[in-house]
Amino acid sequence: MMKLSIEVNHLNTETNRSYEGTPTTAPLVRAEGFRVVYYPTVAVNRVSMAIPRGSIVALIGANGAGKSTMIKALSGIVRCDEGDLYFDDNKVDLQHYSPSMARALGIRVVHQELSLCKNLTVYENFFIEQAQIVKKTFGWRKQAKELAKAALDNVFPGNGIDVAAGLNDLSIAQQQMVEIARATSDQNMRLLILDEPTSSLPIEQTLQLQQYLTKTAREGMTYIYISHRLKEIMSIADSVFIMQNGNEKWRGGVHETSEEHMLKMMVEGMEGAGTLEAQSERPEHNSEIGVHCECYNTATLHNINFHANGGQILGLTGLEGNGQLDLLQEIFRCGGKKRNKAGIQIQGRVAYVAGDRKKEGIFPLWSILDNQAITKAANTNLFRYLSREWLQNSVQYWYDKLHIKSNGTSAGITSLSGGNQQKVLIARALVADANIILLDDPTRGVDQPTKNALYTLFREAATSGKLVIWRTSDDAELRYCTDLLVLNSGHIVGKFDNTNISHETIISLSFESNNEKCEKIEVKRKRLRAPLFTFALIALLVIYAICSFQAPLLLSKYGLQLMVVGFASLALCALGQTFIIGLGHVDLGVGAFCGLVNVICCTTLYDKPILGTIFLLSAFLAYPLMGYIIHKRRVPAIIVTLGMSFIWYGLALSLQSMPGGTCPTWIRTVFYTKTPVANTLFIWLIAFIIIAIVFYRSRYGTVLRGFGNNETAMVNSGWSRAKAYMSVYALAGAFTFMAGIMTSSINNASDPAASGSYTVLSVAAVIIGGGYFAGGVVTLFGAVCGAATLTMIGVLLGLLKVSTDFTASIQGLVLILILSLRLLKRKEGRV
Amino acid sequence: MKNVKAKAFFSRNGSWILAMLGSIVLWILMGLSGNGITIRSLIDNAYTASFLAIAGLAQMLVVTTGRGAIDLSIPGMITLGAYVSMGVCNGSNVMIIPAILLVILLGILVGLLNSSMVIFLGIPAIIATMAMNYIIVTGTMLINNTFNVFTIPSILKAIVQTRVMGIPVIIGIVVILALLIHFLLSATSYGKSLLAMGQNLEAARLASVKVIKIEVLTYVFASVFAGIAGALISARVSGAYLGMGDNYQMESIACIVIGGTLMSGGRANAFGTLVGSLFLYLTISSMQLMGADAGIQSVVKGALIIALLLVGASENGEQRDSRRHKFEAEQA
Q1: pLDDT tens sequence across A618-631
Q2: CATH fold of B15-314
Q3: Does position A648 have pLDDT exceeding 90, yes or no?
Q4: B242 touches chain A (CB under 8 A)
Q5: DSSP character string of B93-142
Q6: For residue range A715-762, what is the model confidence (pLDDT) as tens digits?
């Protein structure tokens, strides 16, 4: 590490020099003989690349050419199997190369998938990634805002993005702008790799980005620019690097090439290039099976018209993300329904073969047998007995036919290679005897012999009268289709029945930006977005108003204090729970821990102050330790905290079996004494709420919130997960601890079981307060309002002379009501 | 290869096998410290455990739906089941059938409401069922005074008290129930679908699994089982009282964790749940024998849950991570 930083310093001085004159001749980055193998596919095959200083190198290629893998290898995300990397003529140790090392060298990437934390604001996102710039403890927000604003204005003048806005309030284009600007704000950056940066940018911003890139390149910055938009490349790139099937295909200056030339280079020599050979004969037409779309529209698909019948293999092609997947999923969705939707008509049983095996394909806990049989099993009567023989008989035919390499069908699915897993998924559809088979790029990461077997299989399926609809990202596969649909931006831009079609036609149709690019940036409709805690606050005020109407005394200072006494402990527990839920966990031990602190405080601490202090301290330390265990062993927090709740309760019970005890006087004096202004309890509670809120808004508090939303991005930005977990648990422990102390001073007695209900109530308070279980969306103030609301419901019912029996259930009903209202609001927001 | 298989088997079944061994050790220890190693002491514990096992089986089904689902309305449903069955029967054997039917109907209703909140309102299961629990508890309080809940119909009493060859009938019933659920999970479309959606909801949807139907059914099953457990428990403790289900809240979760059911869903183990509940009660009674008070018992229970969880996650997290990365890279 030490050595690395010296190198970086050394590099910096050199850059300063090279800024002065013309770019020096030695390239900034030199990759030699890069080879990356995803068994059995060779994704990058001995590719060498030299990136001159102060230049923009365009990296292009058809789908699956190996561009993404190449940049992942350059930026340390994927490890190279072979090759050398030189940065500024210094050899980089590729064995230990990682994203953080790449960053230290000054290599930055703007990926297609955004790596922003959606629950934070724009400037907070700048801070978590550029913490080395934003150093101030106080006033860091101002600094981060300035940084964000400067970076955004620098790249996209007049962007109109409010740096204090939440990421969720920005459109995709605006988020993309933030992501790009954030990378450029890194002062250590030497090389920026942009992967399809303009795919969601409107024209104006695309031009601004291009201007920025050419300007900074002249000043010495270096770029690798990946794009499908050849026009853009012609206007900004200095040189072009074309890849094909993992190999280098062509390289040269931008003046030596043209759009036509690039297209030709990408296609030429590709497997099955030239005119696709028409399949010798079309399988017999089967009109009983079919998919018919007429002027069908969804959010992402526009005016879809096509007819397909059994006996066809319909290929869906185009550049990735232009609506092929949406069309496939739409057909599956509609095929599963009994009634046909207007504009789309499906005759036949559909089955879907997922492309992303891990995310939406395999069931990792299961054997091959179960994985293969599930669709057929799911289609039978729910309670029909499925014997092992039945399952075995169902799958055996296809298992044998597909030559799945394993030790029999009872082996675990994860023991198979990717290609064989894919075979199982295809077999799943075939076993279910579906007659419309939807394939989502099924040959990704599959070796050639298997691929060939699959192609034959699809052909056989079509011959037997089935309809195969096949989305593929490998253009070479299109020749196995009988018909083709080319999609571009959600439109069908080409229909072919595969007689006289050339690759060039398909590729130029897909690349043609049919100027669908919106002229202006899409801004999310400006709505006055209410803060998350609004519902809780309104609910609280309404209930408070009703209560005061019933008992005007509540409006007095005395009445108010009485209420605060009622909910102070729960509010503190809710604050603690907020931190935990903000991380995406749940603490089921809150109530029991509060009870334990209460008991230690009123028994041991009262009798033997020193021993009591030791007890309290060790109880508190258990919390960060819990965080560490959850981090280290990756065990579910919900169980750990559940187990701990038994321990807390048991310890409390051992110390004190019956309610009783006395709170030490000094604690009562500190926390629960009348003063001329207000009871100290009141002051303390407000102080704790402020401390919690201020902390959550502090530098590290922001980092913790980031962890709740996008852990990977946070770790990649260099934050420690262990430290984050321990901090969150320590914080939660501290606030729950204070809840126990408060309970002691209010009641002047202890009861191990008294605060048991705080566990679920605190969770409820956080959720009512506007929090969500996932995504790091929580508010501390909302949680306090939620706690107060839940307590006030009890008060109100008491005033209305409703028996206390109803308190809990009314609390439950209010909870459901608030959550349902929130759902309605969310739905409305989506439209 | 064999080693790999054994490892896989252990990581799948490790925690309940440990619990099984633990149960035997505890039983022997109890025998040594008390009045000799007798089958009788084991059976007595199994008897107490069988009531928890029913609640545990119910919990197991809901947990298996995945995404951290937990049914917190089980205690409420147990209490409600107890009240309704006792109240409707009012000591008469004739009324047992309508009483049980009513309990089942209420279970169906609660299950439908729970699942609607989860599926259609998008409320997290833990919150929805918690709110439902409050509502059921209140409902029970309302009928608290209208019924005579302290006379037990003799048939119900017989079910929970009769022993055949020294073995209580109820143990047999619970074992049959576990068998039935094991069968449902492993050899019916319902079970396969449930396990599939618990592993990966999106994959299940794309594999044509009827996820909504399955989820609704599961919540219904859980509530119905809990209601029936309530009726049986009230016969055992001779009456219904408020809060009688509360102990089953955390214990039902504890016994399935010990039993090897995955809290994240997708893997359930009906027999493991039986072992888990037996182990839990053996722990409690052996500690009672050793003179440990309720506090220590609770501490040990908690420590056991965490220890078994850590054993269950037998490989350390980082190792698993690196494997995952490799897997992801392969998919890229």
Answers
A1: 999 999 999 999 99
A2: ABC transporter involved in vitamin B12 uptake, BtuC (1.10.3470)
A3: yes
A4: no
A5: STTHHHHHHHHHHHHHHHHHHHHHHHHTS---HHHHHHHHHHHHHHHHHH
A6: 877 788 999 999 999 999 999 999 999 999 998 889 888 888 888 889
Rg (CA), chain A: 32
Q: Is residue A520 part of a domain?
A: no
Does A499 score more than 70 pLDDT?
no
Asked if A469 and A328 touch (Cβ cutoff 8 Å), the reply is yes
Q: Do A761 and A817 sit in the same domain of this protein? A: yes
Contact A650 B296 (CB under 8 A): yes
Is residue A751 within 8 A of residue A505, CB to CB? The reply is: no
pLDDT, one tens digit per residue, over A126-139 is 888 887 777 777 78
Cα A407 to Cα A399: distance, rounded to the nearest angstrom:
12
Residue A137 lies in a domain: yes
A276 assigned to some structural domain: no
Q: How far away is chain B from the Cα of A361, in angstroms, using its nearest Cα?
A: 5
Give A723's contacts (C-beta < 8 A, 6+ positions apart).
none
Maximum alpha-carbon separation in chain A: 97
Give the CATH number of the domain where residue A238 resides: 3.40.50.300
pTM: 0.81
Query: Using the beta-carbon criterion (under 8 Å), do A363 and B332 form an inter-chain contact?
Result: no
- A650 to B313: CB separation less than 8 angstroms, yes or no: no
Those residues with Cβ within 8 angstroms of residue B204's Cβ, 6 or more apart along the chain or in another chain: A363, A374, B193, B196, B197, B211
B261 touches B273 (CB < 8 A): yes
Give the dihedral of Cα atoms A736, A739, A741, A743; nearest 10 deg.
Answer: -140
Exposure of A9 by Cβ count < 10 A (0-12 exposed, 13-18 middle, 19+ buried)?
Answer: exposed
Do A457 and A443 contact (CB within 8 A), yes or no? no
Strand partners, A304: A296
Contact between B255 and B54 under an 8 Å Cβ cutoff? The reply is: no
* Predicted-assembly ipTM surpassing the 0.85 threshold: no
A68 and B CB contact within 8 Å: yes
Tell me if chain A has a CB within 8 Å of the CB of B297: yes
CA–CA separation, B224 vs B55, rounded Å?
Answer: 10
Question: What pLDDT score does A272 carry?
Answer: 46
Q: How high is the pLDDT of residue A22?
A: 43
Is residue A336 within 8 angstroms of chain B, CB to CB? yes
DSSP string, B179-191: HHHHHHHHHBHHH
Confidence at residue A529, expressed as pLDDT on a 0 to 100 scale: 63
| Distance from chain centroid for Cα A353 | 23
pLDDT surpasses 90 at A704? yes
